[in-house]
Amino acid sequence: MSGLVYLIAGGSLLLAIVLPTLLDRWAVSAPMVLVGVGIGIGLTPLVDGLAVDPVHHRALVEHVTGLTVIIALMGVGLALDRPLRLTSWSSWRTWGSTWRMLAIAMPLCIAGVTLVGLWVGLGLATALLLGAALAPTDPVLASDVQVAGPRTGEHEVDEPDEIRFTLTSEAGLNDGLAFPFVFAALLVAGGSGIGWSDGLEWLGWYAVAKVAIGVGVGIAVGRVLAHIAFRATSRSLRVAERGEALTSLAALLTAYGLAEVAQGYGFLAVFACAMTFRSAERSHDYHAAMHEVTERLERLLTLLLLLAMGVALSRGLLDELDWRGVAVGLGLVLVIRPAAGMVALAGSPGMGGSQRAAVAFFGVRGVGSLYYVAYALGREPDLGSGWLWSTVAFTVTASVVIHGALATPLMRWVGSPPREPAGT
């Protein structure tokens, strides 16, 4: 059996390597193919001895999906070429489309899914958890519509494609900003979060303080590591001169761990750390090297997750899916997210109607949604059920198929340039 597992993993890894180039001109994405391969493997007796049930392996799902997300967040932060200077109002304004998606579109998505959940008969806590888990745009599976990586040296640019920039920066921030709503669901499930005092506690601690701690820790870690990498007095510490790209992994683990110890949001810390590090010596090729390491590791972990999800889909993960789960999933992907995005971006400068529609539509759901469900059920098991996992898995799969099939033709239709390798 172990030899067979290695054979399947090796063949699938080869697929992951060659698929992005092979599928570049087709309305098929690599995640679609990998999920399909996983489903095909699951229909054979080859994996009869493998356990793929997320209900019984919740902790494993939480740790693997969480690691994949923070690696993706580090890559996203390093990939963004547009700077964000905290003391410059003009710099904040260049991120206007991102703030609109975070402050308007995401809460509307959470509210929309929660209302649909209540309409189909879910309890408030479960409906709110479903809304929080499914609201964020995923930084892992949305690569086809995001920026490819940092442009450094002579290739550095200041104005990336607005569609890809908005989707990339939104994905970098909204995973962490969904956490307050996950905690709101946990508070409701535990019998709290209903009175004024509980509401004020949620607002002050979960929605403000933990966000501030996460961002603050990320900025601090990013500044310290950037100073060491680029400007340390000891040449042995200036790792940028040696091109030691594993610093990216040290940075994301340090930022995440320190933020969690300080009771802040680790996801926000990782993204803030990456953005802060990217702001130092912006044209240095070291950023591209660090991004390449995170991207390759993210690709490997994503491969494993997509294969496992495909196997699970064909081995009972959707057994408890019913019309309610289909209504939630398709309602979010086809109605709630596009409508919320269009409301958020109405009148947004620098974007035409077709560009706003593209950003609103491409709210890819993925690994982050699986993480939030696993995280919440580890703290309130009574919230969980096979139906919840079936609904989230269906929504992620529907997003992979719908967005994957439409990414290439729609991005070409709105005039967005193809996703090019970083540094070109």
Automatic annotation (TrEMBL):
Question: Where are the coiled-coil regions?
Answer: none
List the InterPro entries: Cation/H_exchanger_TM
Listed transmembrane segments: 6-23, 30-47, 59-80, 101-134, 203-230, 250-277, 297-317, 323-345, 357-375, 387-406
Query: Secretion signal: which residues?
Result: none
Give the main localization category: membrane
Q: Which UniProt keywords apply?
A: Antiport, Ion transport, Membrane, Transmembrane, Transmembrane helix, Transport
How does this protein lie in the membrane?
Multi-pass membrane protein
Domain Cation/H+ exchanger transmembrane span(s) in chain numbering: 14-413
**Keyword Transmembrane helix applies:** yes
Tell me the Gene Ontology biological-process terms attached to this UniProt entry.
proton transmembrane transport
The Gene Ontology CC terms held by the record are: plasma membrane
Compartment annotation: Cell membrane
Example GO molecular function? antiporter activity
Name of this protein: Sodium:proton antiporter
Organism per entry: Nocardioides albidus
